[in-house]
Write a structure and sequence with these properties.
alpha/beta; Rossmann fold; globular
């Protein structure tokens, strides 16, 4: 599926160009929805709201960035709360406060992963404004970080970050279904920061990317951290992967980046890509006798109850330049001062 998407959306050509009328309709409907939601939104919230999202379909690294953000904000003295739609989960009630024991079937995989990796409060609700009111009403924190909420316009926001995959960029530059764009490139004029996920950009002074001009573009690198046993939580160093046969399992938006990471660590990789947010079963976790199963942290939270003993997850950590951290924290402080003045 990933290679098909790459051919249809992320090459230079537009093989689905004949669907251009649907792209025009998609743009008209999305802009109408945005205007309606923006006009119907409630007054601003009494705490800064940081929204992380993207204008392209597929995985770009939003969740690792969200984890980095709440860590840096907490280090600066804030008490951040993560808000999420909880895609892939279905709870009996909302808002749902997530902890390490919450089932991904209820909360979705990413909220449970973020709760485990950050230790921050996580609140799930398809209505992000309701989640925000709940978090503040329960005094869970004094700053809200919304994971994947760029198009959720009913939620007031003070700071917006749009994330791109460095290799894929804007693809063929067309809107869904001809291309991968959820919104026109012009939408970036209103975001505060553009983040590019890719080691190849980490050393560059970035003022533009893939034809995008923006005063605040920064590179992000996702670095592998450790191997974590899916069932026990025991850790081992990533150097253990060198020369090992690995069945790499990924149910994420851009599995090729995960597979490339394992190969770069010296593993002999057999790829097993599943749809994003795939609901795994024990039968999906098969491997050869001498193979190690390695999956993403997001997938691992769904497999804790039935993973075999040779199943491990690879943790990743976001790295961003200090100048971005300084700019972000300054922007958040400015927003907080405006809210209290």
């Amino acid at each position: 599926m990933s290679s098909l998407v790459d051919r249809l959306w992320y090459g230079r050509n537009r093989p689905l160009g004949f669907l251009a009328p649907l792209s025009w309709l998609y743009r008209s409907l999305s802009e109408s929805r945005r205007r309606s939601a923006w006009e119907a939104r409630d007054a601003s919230l009494p705490a800064p709201v940081v929204v992380v999202g993207n204008i392209t379909a597929g995985g770009t690294g939003k969740s690792p960035l969200t984890a980095w953000l709440v860590s840096e904000l907490a280090r600066d003295g804030w008490r951040p709360v993560i808000l999420s739609r909880g895609y892939g989960g279905k709870a009996s009630h909302y808002p749902l406060e997530v902890n390490a024991r919450t089932s991904p079937l209820e909360a979705g995989d990413e909220p449970v992963m973020l709760a485990l990796s950050t230790g921050c409060p996580v609140v799930v609700d398809p209505q992000r404004r309701r989640a925000a009111d709940y978090a503040l009403g329960k005094n869970l924190g004094n700053l809200l970080v919304c994971d994947d909420g760029l198009q959720h316009y009913k939620l007031p926001r003070d700071v917006e970050l749009s994330v791109f995959d460095g290799k894929r960029g804007i693809g063929n530059g067309a809107l869904i279904p001809v291309g991968p764009l959820r919104e026109p490139i012009s939408r970036l004029a209103s975001v505060d920061f553009v983040i590019v996920n890719g080691a190849e950009y980490s050393e560059q002074a970035m003022g533009s990317f893939a034809g995008i001009e923006h005063p605040e573009i920064y590179a992000m690198v996702l670095e592998p951290g450790a191997l974590v046993h899916v069932r026990t939580g025991k850790s081992r160093p990533i150097s253990d992967l060198k020369g090992v046969r690995v069945r790499a399992i990924a149910g994420i938006g851009n599995p090729s980046r995960f597979f490339d990471t394992l190969s770069a660590l010296g593993a002999a990789v057999t790829e097993a890509a599943f749809p994003d947010h795939h609901r795994f079963r024990a039968a999906d976790l098969n491997a050869g006798e001498a193979e190690l199963i390695v999956m993403t942290a997001k997938d691992a939270v769904k497999c804790r109850d039935f993973a075999p003993d040779n199943a491990w997850s690879l943790t990743v950590e976001a790295r961003l330049p200090g100048r971005f951290r300084d700019a972000l924290l300054a922007r958040v402080r400015q927003c907080s001062e405006q809210l209290t003045s």
